[in-house]
Amino acid sequence: QDYTWEDHGYSLVNRLYPDVGQLLDEKFQVVYNLTYNPIAMPCGVDTSVLRRAIWNYVHCVFGIRYDDYDYGEVNQLLERSLKVYIKAVACYPEKTTTQVYRQFWRHFKHSEKVHINLLLLEARMQAALLYALRAVTRYMT
């Protein structure tokens, strides 16, 4: 809540490595905004709320919480099997199995599941960067 990518991490990375903050931010935004709108059906569905819930849940798993986000949304949108999968991939990617992959969202396309993987891995990377950059900030002050 007191150290975010938008407010602190981005500017520190750009100060330490010019233009890298911009590249990382673009990478995060591309994955976060990546959608062709269907979810298990061909019609257009706004997936932004789901994508935000997944991103914030990954951050929550790593102890990062935001005051301006309603975490009740996570419980409404993410079923238990998806939460188990997210924790497994985010915390123990080497232990993730095909069985765990098949247990969440059984009626969804593989491309939709791959998008979930991209989202959670980028959110994980951002969480790790936030912890590292916060340590650098504390060291510098």
TrEMBL record:
InterPro entries with a match to the protein in the record: Sestrin (IPR006730)
Pfam families: PA26
Biological processes per GO annotation: cellular response to L-leucine; cellular response to leucine starvation; negative regulation of TORC1 signaling; positive regulation of macroautophagy; regulation of response to reactive oxygen species
GO CC list: nucleus
Secretion signal span: none
Molecular-function GO term, any one: oxidoreductase activity, acting on peroxide as acceptor
UniProt protein name: SESN2 protein
Organism: Notiomystis cincta
Taxonomic lineage from the root: Eukaryota, Metazoa, Chordata, Craniata, Vertebrata
Gene name per UniProt: Sesn2_1
